[in-house]
UniProtKB/TrEMBL annotation, chains A, B:
<dbReference type="InterPro" id="IPR006094">
    <property type="entry name" value="Oxid_FAD_bind_N"/>
</dbReference>
<dbReference type="InterPro" id="IPR016169">
    <property type="entry name" value="FAD-bd_PCMH_sub2"/>
</dbReference>
<keyword id="KW-0274">FAD</keyword>
<dbReference type="InterPro" id="IPR036318">
    <property type="entry name" value="FAD-bd_PCMH-like_sf"/>
</dbReference>
<dbReference type="InterPro" id="IPR016166">
    <property type="entry name" value="FAD-bd_PCMH"/>
</dbReference>
<keyword id="KW-0285">Flavoprotein</keyword>
<dbReference type="InterPro" id="IPR016164">
    <property type="entry name" value="FAD-linked_Oxase-like_C"/>
</dbReference>
<comment type="similarity">
    <text>Belongs to the FAD-binding oxidoreductase/transferase type 4 family.</text>
</comment>
<dbReference type="InterPro" id="IPR016171">
    <property type="entry name" value="Vanillyl_alc_oxidase_C-sub2"/>
</dbReference>
<keyword id="KW-0560">Oxidoreductase</keyword>
<protein>
    <submittedName>
        <fullName>FAD-binding protein</fullName>
    </submittedName>
</protein>
<dbReference type="GO" id="GO:0071949">
    <property type="term" value="F:FAD binding"/>
</dbReference>
<dbReference type="InterPro" id="IPR051914">
    <property type="entry name" value="FAD-linked_OxidoTrans_Type4"/>
</dbReference>
<dbReference type="InterPro" id="IPR004113">
    <property type="entry name" value="FAD-bd_oxidored_4_C"/>
</dbReference>
<feature type="domain" description="FAD-binding PCMH-type">
    <location>
        <begin position="35"/>
        <end position="214"/>
    </location>
</feature>
<dbReference type="GO" id="GO:0016491">
    <property type="term" value="F:oxidoreductase activity"/>
</dbReference>
<dbReference type="Pfam" id="PF02913">
    <property type="entry name" value="FAD-oxidase_C"/>
</dbReference>
Length: 453, 453
């Protein structure tokens, strides 16, 4: 037994789990990637003190630490390998404070996004970052990846919704970054730097979240079918140009619509049709929905509109069936490029080109309000084939050419580390790596992720 | 002539200004602080290449560089001293791009906030960060300090409204941080780290700003007089608790109201009265204003409400007269603490205590929606007397006790550097200083500011 494991056992007893199934599960997230082998152990931390103990031992023994939440990541950022400690925060689920007066909550990182939402609802409060994975993903994972979701164009990203963090540093010391107030500019904004840092700078053990009041009034839902993805993309741009701000605006391309239609046995969808699903909320929801319906019809869409919640849920169900529909096609590598809204139609052209040239099926769903696209590279078997990687490489470079980014909300992890310097440039890449080194001089925090070329 | 100055002259000619008045002006901002003496020169950069030239020469010769915009800072962060280069970006005022489709603008840092606003208005667009100094302060200064303003509770702070930055590093290299898309999590968020870094990490030479569409519809304005500041603070908390979100909610304490009433010759204000000024906007402006009027009356306020723009301007004029009113009292050290909204009444108690115990007059205006208070320490003469410093020290410590922060929006500069570690803790203070060192290994970027204890 390694010295690190012996010391962890002595300090943390049964919270150090070396069960074969547990360590095996810690090799993977939902990206389809697995590490080279099982980690030393999974430590189920139950307190800040537990996390500090793990980091002190890891620091003293030079043992790598891979922090994990629910393991729902899509970039391999939390996959733990041989010789590494998998530090699970999934048991740290307490809500330490909810303050309706200050519109904030203080939570532990392991709470599921959906559970937090359920706890805030009775207060009439809401934490806006709302990943599609909310039922199964943690707040800590949301912060570690800088995750996004469906509502970002209107309600912002994670970085806009975190006031302060409690962070255990690589050597076990605890710092508190940020503020409990809306404003605060004392020193450098380490809170923002830590958001999206994917476990490379420290371990987030507590978060002070900036809440909103729940949006009152009706929610209106629209769907619209278009003859092709370009016209659907143009229609979504026309919605934005009309000056209305939907809460949700999702675009499904033809391959996605076809797969979902087959799964749900929806008969009357024309071949090649693409679809928009849009929701409006707030005091102007009905007026905005009417404007949007007009814009979509003028753009050639076949529009359905409802203010009825049940009917709205029924319309949304089509979009929600994207992932199950992909599973009917094979294994999917879910990508995550983001481009300026105005370049979205061009990005769809590029996806079509990449699919054709590399002979890969790439059904794509986009958060059309913010230009974030999720191309699903479909293949057979468990391993990503080389031609899919070649296609993904082509796709990433296309996104960069269009002024876009490799990853809108999933993170870099292991999946995209080899393209990181392409986007950042060598000077910035080195600068970022040197900053990470200040936090983690011994290189024990999630090594091999993000900054390993 | 120093080597640095000779090389600057050779490279940049007349843009290197050693005129006595110019270098003298670069010693100060609007904080009331002056550096120990005039800088070597003021360089009026006109392009990114000019800035790179300055930094290359500064780096080669080990000469400190103090970046300046319009010199309207309130913390001494841009004051340049002996042996230093004052690098003025005030001539870099171009708007390089406005994209209504992508809701972004790319600008040079020297443009005034007000000029940018005027240029965006015809597009129906708006950059929300709106400091009270907008007519005289630059976008670059706004970014360097992480400035706030009156609208932050509803529309966010600078950090929420910048997508990407072009930054010249300490040795003259240029990097581009961030994204043109709403979402993007590729690597560490250096954009956010640079915002509010007060010239210690690099020189921002370009900014991609996240715009909003201008808010349509009527703006409603309310004022309400209360018998004392505690009841006004309680009323502002009741407004927030009622679930409405004003665009503006300003609180003037009794000393401020008295000084403004005297200046504007408003006769009918009772002694000891405090005032709230509130604006609502957006589709629910009228309904929200009605709710707020009811809440304020129930809280004991004497309320005026109007949807007429001219009458609204007249009501706002009282709040706008705060600074001129302070000038009638003497010299003012304008402070900038921020506390959680729920602690604002306690903070006013603390201000009253500090004023009494240190025998200082401290009229205070607060952005009540976000808990940011500006106590004005009034004194005679140009130099801040020691008893005022002692009072400010007492006040800062009170803000920290209440879970608040030293500075909500003005920054640390020289004014608050000695309290920085009190708020951050020693571990985080050292971590921040080490991060700054990665950006600036030779220590030439704004030395003596922020991280100098």
């Amino acid at each position: 037994m390694s010295e690190a494991l012996a010391r962890l056992r002595a300090a943390l007893g049964e919270r150090v789990d070396t069960g074969a199934e547990t360590v095996e599960a810690a090799r993977a997230d939902r990206s389809g990637f697995r590490s080279a082998g099982a980690p030393l152990a999974v430590v189920h931390a139950e307190s800040v003190a537990d996390v500090q103990t793990v980091l002190r031992i890891a620091h003293a023994t030079g043992t790598p630490v891979v922090t994990r939440g629910a393991g729902t990541g899509l970039a391999g950022g939390a996959n733990a390998g041989p010789g590494e400690i998998a530090l699970s925060l999934r048991r740290m689920t307490r809500i330490l404070e909810v303050s309706p007066d200050d519109l904030l909550a203080v939570v532990e990182p392991g709470i599921l996004n959906g559970d937090l939402d359920a706890a805030l609802a009775p207060h009439g409060l809401w934490w806006a970052p709302d990943p599609a994975s909310r039922a199964i993903s943690t707040v800590g994972g949301n912060i570690a990846t800088g995750a996004g979701g469906l509502l970002c164009a209107k309600y912002g990203v994670v970085r806009d919704a975190v006031l302060a963090l409690d962070v255990v540093l690589a050597d076990g010391r605890l710092i508190r970054t940020g503020h409990r107030s809306v404003k605060g500019v004392t020193g450098l904004d380490l809170t923002a730097l830590l958001i999206g840092s994917e476990g490379t700078l420290g371990v987030v053990v507590g978060a002070t979240l900036k809440l909103r009041r729940r949006v009152a009034g009706a929610v209106c839902t629209l769907t619209a079918l278009f003859p092709d993805v370009r016209s659907a993309a143009a229609a979504s741009a026309a919605v934005t140009a009309a000056g209305v701000q939907p809460a949700i605006m999702e675009l499904l391309d033809a391959a996605s619509v076809a797969a979902i239609s087959a799964l749900l046995r929806v008969p009357d969808v024309a071949a090649g049709a693409a679809q928009l699903t849009i929701q409006t909320d707030g005091p102007a929801a009905a007026a905005e929905a009417d404007t949007i319906a007009r814009v979509l019809r003028e753009a050639g869409g076949r529009v359905a509109l409802t203010a009825d919640p049940e009917e709205g849920e029924r319309l949304l169900a089509f979009r929600r069936a994207m992932h199950p529909a992909m599973e009917t096609l094979g294994t999917a590598l879910i990508e995550d490029v983001s481009v300026p809204r105005s370049r979205m139609a061009e990005m769809f052209d590029e996806i079509e080109r990449v699919a054709r040239e590399h002979d890969v099926v790439i059904p794509t769903v986009a958060h059309a309000g913010d230009g974030n696209l999720h191309p699903n590279f479909v293949f057979d078997g468990a391993e990503v084939p080389e031609r899919v990687w070649a296609a993904a490489d082509d796709l990433f470079r296309a996104a960069l050419r269009l002024g876009g980014t490799l990853t809108g909300e999933h993170g870099v992890g292991v999946l995209k580390r080899r393209w990181l310097a392409d986007e950042l440039g060598d000077d910035q890449w080195r600068l970022q790596r040197d900053i990470a080194h200040v936090f983690d001089p011994r290189g024990i925090l999630n090594p091999g992720k993000v900054f390993t070329p």
